[in-house]
Structures are given as structure tokens and as C-alpha cells.
């Protein structure tokens, strides 16, 4: 979602501008004074919309906002003022009285010009990674993002598939609208269709009002369907119809509604498995224009250290614990550990280490990953055939009597909900036992 900083001293005009942007799907921050706006962080937004008089009277305002584009709104427009504003670096100059669509279009043009090129390292600054596989992935995001293509993102749990989906959305013409994320594995199968397509008032049991689904709510934007391969066949069939005709029909309704929604999906499962699981899965795959593969963390080389350093800096700022660094042994441990939980597990390990370290250097023991991975404890043929699911199964069975579910999830670098879902999928019921080891912080 595009984020706009509105700087306008007049309260009524500022509220009016905010309302117009929010109705179009923008996220808005508002300030009445340039200094307050700069303190609010112009660098954290995609564009600044300001009163032209502020830019002219405060000579360094536009320079301080750079490289964020600034669109100026003029109460008393003149050619001289327009020329001066453009000379100072304004992205656009919009005179009053103005049509909301004109201002929205000016902001969209400004943010479109400000989008970085994919060839550079900062093409998608929220995505960290410089290995060959990640560079190739970001090139594909740059290719498919600006299109209306239906994209499937394949990758293991915790690799950052949703982040890639949001990058696709952010580089598209829909970036000013919202992106709605829906995890198909997170709710019961019987509820998925009603969540996506809505319920008509004639079949609603608890309310006389119709309830729209997520496809209607995402109209004009993007719907991200995570773990789409876990969607039941009946929901896959309805989604397939939507991809073909762009219409949504709520349960119990004979009326179909048009919905202009881009679908981006993701799955942890093998794409061939997804396509061949049933007839609808195969037809859905045929409607997908592109498949992007997110590499697991263990295949990303030195990206592990770069990611860890970024998480360390972010966590230290959040917890106000400055000056922490990684010991050389900790960096070595992170590079040799296979990270079955991928980036999510790395984030949890680093954040936990920051909490447990008061000052100075974070050693390998604080990361608490060495005891999860002992290569010499495997038999050679087991090492060759092991998989992430094998690792999960073995770790849970070996440690579930010692740790609570919350602690097990933390050790694996996943959420407790993900732990429960994997237990169900792998048929590993929780053993009832009174045996517990010491609680670990």
C-alpha cells in the first residue's frame, strides 16, 4: 500500500486531502508544519503532498524530503511559483481548485518515477539478499510485478513468500490499493469458500446483512492466497471460475459481481505436486502465468550473515539495546546451520539472542542453534536422505517430553500455530505425559 505524508497548515484542507487519499486506498500520515513532517520521517513514506507555499517559504523543505517525491498543491497558483517549485525539485505542481483524480494521478506518476530499477542492489529495499538465486528472483519480480499476471510463489515455510508477493504488488499499478493476505491452511476447509466469496443474507444465520468475501474486499487491489495447495477442491473450482470470468457470486445469491482483483498465490509444496493433486489443481496451474521460486536460506550463502546483521540492528533499535555485535563463532555457526525454519527461524534466533545478551558480544551459545543440529550424530545414508520434514519429525519426537509446545515452536523457529499444523499434517499427536524438564527462558 502506498504511504503518503500530507503537509498542510489548514486543518480543513488537510482533512479533505486525507479523506481523498484514504478513499483511494492510500495509507496517510498528516502534519501541519514542515518541521513536524520531517520529524515524522519523510523517508518512511512513498510520496509527500504539501502546500506549495510551505515549499517556497521553507527553502530546504524539498531537499530534505529527497529522494521521496513531493507533489505540491497551490492555493494561489501562478506560473512564477510553478517554475520556482519545479526548480527546487518538486515532482509535480497541482493548482487549486483541484479534482481528486488529478491529484491522485500526480502522486501515482511521482511514485512510479521513484521506483528503483531492478538492476541495482536496492530494487526492493525491504528484501535483503545478494546471492545469485535472490538476484534472479528479484529480476523476475521486476518483470512480472508491473503486469496483471497471476503468479504462484513456491518456497519452503519461512522463506519470505509473502514479502515477495508484496514486492510484486508494490511494483504494479495497483500499489496505491490494498493487498489482502489470506492463509488457506489457517482456517477450517469448510470456511474457506465463505471467507473468499462471501455469504448472501438469505443464508446468513447470525445477521440479516450480507457479508462480502475477501475477493470483493480486495477489489482494485491484490489478494495473496498463501498455501493455496491446501485449498479444498470445491474452493479451487470456484477460484478457477473467478480467474476465468472475474466475477464473484456469494453463497445463496443468484447475482454475480465483477471484482477487479489480481491473484498472487503461494505454496510450500512442489509445484508439480500441486498441479497434479486433483483435476482442479491442474486447471488452476494452467491459469498461472508465472512461477517464482524462493530459495531456502541454507542455499543463500553469505546472505545468512547479511540478514542476521539486519535483524540484529532492527531488534537492537526496537529494544533500545545498542552496541551488540556477533562473535566470530556465532557467525560461523549461522553459516553452517541448515535453518530448517529459514528466515523466520533466523529472525527468532537473533531476537532471542538480543534479549538474552545484556551487552557486548553475542556468542554462539546465545543463538541456541548448535544443540539443534549435530551432523556427526547422523548415519551417512540418513544424512543423504534426510529432509526438513524428517528433521522436524525427529526433533519433535526427541524433545516433546522436555519442552512445552511454545518452547518447541521457539526452538524450531516457527509459531505455535505452525507447529500444530505440521503435527496434523505429519500425524504426530501430542503425547500426554507429566514428564517435563526445566522451563527454559
Q: What does this entry look like structurally?
A:
This protein is α/β, with parallel strands linked by helices. It is 46% helix and 13% strand. The protein is built from 21 helices and 14 strands. The chain has helices at 11-23, 34-40, 52-57, 61-65, 79-88, 100-114, 132-144, 161-170, 189-197, 214-217, 233-245, 271-276, 279-286, 303-319, 328-336, 342-356, 364-367, 380-385, 388-399, 405-412, 416-426; strands spanning 3-7, 27-31, 47-51, 70-74, 92-95, 151-154, 179-183, 222-226, 247-249, 256-258, 262-267, 290-293, 325-326, 361-362. The strands form four sheets. A five-stranded parallel sheet has the order 2-1-3-4-5, with helices on both faces. Strands 7-8-11-6-12 form a five-stranded parallel sheet. A hairpin with a 6-residue loop joins strand 9 (247-249) and strand 10.
Amino acid at each position: 500500500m502506498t504511504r503518503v505524508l500530507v503537509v498542510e497548515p489548514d486543518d480543513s484542507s488537510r482533512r479533505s486531502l486525507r479523506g481523498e487519499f484514504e478513499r483511494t486506498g492510500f495509507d496517510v500520515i498528516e502534519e501541519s508544519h514542515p518541521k513536524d513532517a520531517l520529524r515524522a520521517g519523510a523517508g518512511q513514506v512513498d510520496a509527500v503532498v504539501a502546500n506549495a507555499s510551505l515549499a517556497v517559504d521553507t527553502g530546504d523543505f524539498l531537499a530534505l524530503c529527497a529522494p521521496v517525491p513531493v507533489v505540491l498543491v497551490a492555493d494561489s497558483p501562478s506560473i512564477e511559483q510553478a517554475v520556482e517549485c519545479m526548480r527546487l525539485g518538486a515532482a509535480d505542481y497541482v493548482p487549486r481548485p483541484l479534482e481528486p483524480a488529478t491529484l491522485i494521478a500526480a502522486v501515482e506518476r511521482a511514485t512510479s518515477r521513484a521506483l528503483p530499477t531492478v538492476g541495482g542492489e536496492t530494487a526492493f529495499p525491504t528484501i535483503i539478499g545478494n546471492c545469485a538465486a535472490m538476484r534472479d528472483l528479484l529480476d523476475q519480480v521486476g518483470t512480472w510485478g508491473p503486469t496483471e499476471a497471476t503468479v504462484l510463489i513456491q518456497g519452503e515455510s519461512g522463506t519470505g513468500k509473502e514479502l515477495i508477493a508484496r514486492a510484486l504488488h508494490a511494483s504494479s499499478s495497483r500499489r496505491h490499493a490494498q493487498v489482502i493476505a489470506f492463509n488457506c491452511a489457517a482456517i477450517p476447509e469448510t470456511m474457506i469458500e465463505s471467507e473468499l466469496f462471501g455469504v448472501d443474507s438469505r443464508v446468513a444465520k447470525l445477521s440479516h446483512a450480507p457479508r462480502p468475501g475477501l475477493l470483493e474486499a480486495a477489489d482494485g487491489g491484490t489478494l495473496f492466497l498463501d498455501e493455496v495447495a491446501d485449498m479444498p477442491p470445491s474452493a479451487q473450482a470456484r477460484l478457477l471460475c473467478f480467474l476465468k470470468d472475474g466475477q464473484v457470486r456469494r453463497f445463496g445469491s443468484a447475482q454475480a459481481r465483477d471484482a477487479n482483483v489480481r491473484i498472487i498465490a503461494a505454496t510450500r509444496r512442489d509445484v508439480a505436486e500441486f498441479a497434479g493433486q486433483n483435476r482442479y489443481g491442474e486447471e488452476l496451474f494452467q491459469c498461472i502465468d508465472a512461477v517464482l521460486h524462493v530459495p531456502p536460506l541454507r542455499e543463500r550463502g553469505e546472505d545468512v550473515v547479511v540478514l542476521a546483521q539486519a535483524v540484529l540492528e532492527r531488534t537492537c533499535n526496537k529494544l533500545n539495546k545498542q552496541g551488540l555485535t556477533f562473535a566470530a563463532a556465532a557467525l560461523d555457526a549461522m553459516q553452517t546451520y541448515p535453518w530448517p525454519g529459514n528466515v523466520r527461524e533466523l529472525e527468532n534466533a537473533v531476537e532471542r539472542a538480543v534479549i538474552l545478551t545484556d551487552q557486548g558480544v553475542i556468542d554462539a551459545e546465545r543463538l541456541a542453534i548448535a544443540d539443534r543440529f549435530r551432523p556427526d550424530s547422523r548415519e551417512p545414508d540418513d544424512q543423504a536422505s534426510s529432509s526438513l520434514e524428517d528433521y522436524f519429525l525427529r526433533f519433535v519426537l526427541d524433545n516433546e517430553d522436555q519442552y512445552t509446545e511454545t518452547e518447541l515452536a521457539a526452538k524450531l523457529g516457527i509459531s505455535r500455530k505452525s507447529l500444530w499444523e505440521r503435527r496434523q499434517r505429519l500425524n504426530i499427536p501430542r503425547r500426554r505425559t507429566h514428564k517435563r524438564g526445566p522451563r527454559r527462558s
